[in-house]
Design brief:
Layout (H helix, E strand, L loop, with lengths): L5 H4 L10 H12 L1 H14 L6 E5 L5 H9 L5 E6 L2 H9 L8 E4 L12 E7 L8 H11 E19 L4 H13 L6 H11 L3 E12 L2 H8 L1 H10 L5 H17 L4 E11 L1
Parallel strand pairs: 1-2, 1-4, 2-3, 4-5
Antiparallel strand pairs: 5-7, 6-7
Length: 270
């Protein structure tokens, strides 16, 4: 079993002995069709314009920041912030020093920027990991210019679902994984958080990611790791765990495997 558990490890990547676990996860997600589709939609909803200043909060490896920089070239400016020095170093290594975004280590709950200094803010799957997510949204509201736009995308782990005949073991696995996140219901909470921060014209769009392959879902959602932890803690017997994995492997091979999750894209105007 690994100490690098994706549900809990992203807030402390720099303390990990294996940063590659996190960079590989982010690269994998960026390669998947569902993620490409919702990010293209988020670009349209954010409506970046040439010459604007855009802040990407929780930028990770900088893939989204680089894409946004291309959209507002040549005179726009994108700034990506993240808590992790290691992820930022990798983002910088992947970025053109002349045309790419700038990267800065910062706490999203205390942004090091003046009031009303950016035109657009974006945060993607970071709030699920950050304590006091309302503070982050209020900070993004503070740095946005009047009429500026905030786009937040995040998961609702209360909707995480796996198909299985072993209902008790599946419920334990779903619950343990979902509740390991700092804010497991953040997706459904986003609209009221934006309204509380003073945003108006708040738009909400749900989307569903669907995996039909057990091996791929396992890489994304740490299914085997979660099951192993449940066995270690005595919540699931070794025999039941073995039966569950055998069932999921068979379902994947015969077309019956299903793993789904609902997320929300929420956009507000300052």
């Amino acid at each position: 079993m690994s100490d690098d558990y994706l549900a809990t490890g992203f807030p402390s990547v720099d303390a990990s002995t294996c940063t590659g676990v996190y960079t590989q996860c982010l690269d994998l997600l960026d390669s998947l069709p569902y993620f490409k589709t919702y990010k293209a939609r988020s670009d349209a909803l954010l409506d970046p314009r040439a010459g604007q200043t855009i802040l990407e909060v929780g930028c990770g490896l900088g893939e989204d920041a680089r894409r946004l920089a291309d959209l507002i070239a040549p005179h726009g400016r994108v700034i990506g912030i993240d808590r992790s020095r290691r992820l930022l170093a990798e983002a910088q290594a992947r970025t053109s020093p002349t045309t790419g975004p700038a990267f800065l280590q910062a706490d999203a709950r205390a942004l090091p920027f003046a009031q009303a200094c950016v035109d657009r803010c974006r945060i993607d799957r970071a709030l699920q990991h950050i304590a006091q997510p309302q503070r982050v949204i209020h900070e993004m509201a503070r740095v946005l210019r009047p009429g500026g736009r905030l786009l937040a995308y995040d998961n609702d782990w209360g909707t995480f679902a796996l198909s299985s005949s072993l209902c008790e073991a599946t419920d334990i696995l779903q619950t343990r994984w979902s509740r390991a996140f700092t804010n497991p219901w953040i997706g459904r909470d986003l609209p009221r958080y934006l309204l509380d921060a003073g945003f108006h014209d708040v738009l909400v769009e749900p989307s569903v990611s669907l995996f039909r392959d057990f091996a791929l879902a396992d890489r994304v959602y740490n299914l085997s790791e979660t099951l192993a932890r449940a066995v270690r803690d005595g919540a699931v017997s070794p025999a039941t765990a073995e039966a569950w994995r055998a069932e999921q492997t068979l379902l994947s091979r015969t077309g019956g495997f299903l793993c789904s999750l609902t997320a929300y894209t929420v956009v507000g105007t300052r």
